[in-house]
Amino acid sequence: MATTADIRMGMIIKLDGSLYSVVEFGQNKTARAAAKVWAKLKGVDNTRSIEHTWNSGDNIFPVRVERRPYQFLYKDESGFNLMDTNSFEQIVMPESMIDNPQLYKDGQECFVIVNTETETPMSVELPPNVVLRITYSEPGLKGDTATRALKAATMETGATVMVPLFVDTDELIRVDSRTGAYVERVKE
């Protein structure tokens, strides 16, 4: 049994019969009332996003999960086909259970989040940063670097990422897989 003092980012808890991942949390203290703990929660087994408040010290019900390494093989009409890198078993996951599906490329390393109580996969996520090649972007204008201007670039996976003006076609860039934002250029 855990209490509200044990809440952490990314923790998965059971609330009202559904599983939620903690996206953000904090504590409110006032002089006249007991402290409260609040959290923004994202549904793991549903598509809901909610906010919930507990009294400080209330019990919460964390769910034990594991991040297992998998490799993305390909996508077809049945879903995303993944292979366990340890046992070489293949599974198919629907697109609704994939975080940022537009950033996946063949052979990409990913992690399947598995509920260890039931051994069922709950979601699939990428490492924090992925390296992708730009297949098309408009040429930047020389000398237009005084402001933090951005332009759209199409990646090898078909995703569109906003990049700085100095980045050109056929370059490798690092993309934050949680937000889909440009991080930096990568040398080949």
Describe the 3D structure.
This protein has 188 residues and is mainly β. The protein folds into 3 domains: 2-62, SH3 type barrels, CATH 2.30.30; 65-125, Nucleic acid-binding proteins (OB fold (Dihydrolipoamide Acetyltransferase, E2P)), CATH 2.40.50; 129-186, OB fold (Dihydrolipoamide Acetyltransferase, E2P) (Beta Barrel), CATH 2.40.50. Helices cover 0% and strands 54% of the residues. It is built from no helices and 16 strands. The strands form 3 sheets. It has a 6-stranded antiparallel beta sheet with strand order 1-6-2-3-4-5, with no helix packed on it. Strands 9-8-7-10-11 form a 5-stranded antiparallel beta sheet, with no helix packed on it. The mean pLDDT is 88.
Would you list the SSEs in sequence order as H and E? EEEEEEEEEEEEEEEE
The largest pleated sheet is described as: 6 strands, antiparallel
What low-confidence regions span 5 or more consecutive residues with pLDDT below 50?
none
Q: What's the total count of β strands?
A: 16
Taking Cα atoms only, what radius of gyration do you get, to the nearest Å?
20 Å
> Which range does the strand content fall in?
over 45%
Strand order of the largest sheet: 1-6-2-3-4-5
Give the overall shape, derived from the CA principal axes. flat
Instruction: Count up the helices.
Output: 0
Separation, N- and C-terminal Cα atoms: 49 Å
Q: State the helical fraction.
A: under 10%
Q: Total domains, how many?
A: 3
Q: Let me know the average pLDDT.
A: 88
The CATH topology of the largest domain turns out to be SH3 type barrels
What is the CATH class designation of the largest domain? Mainly Beta
Please identify the structural class as seen in this structure.
Answer: mainly beta
- Identify the CATH architecture of the largest domain: Roll
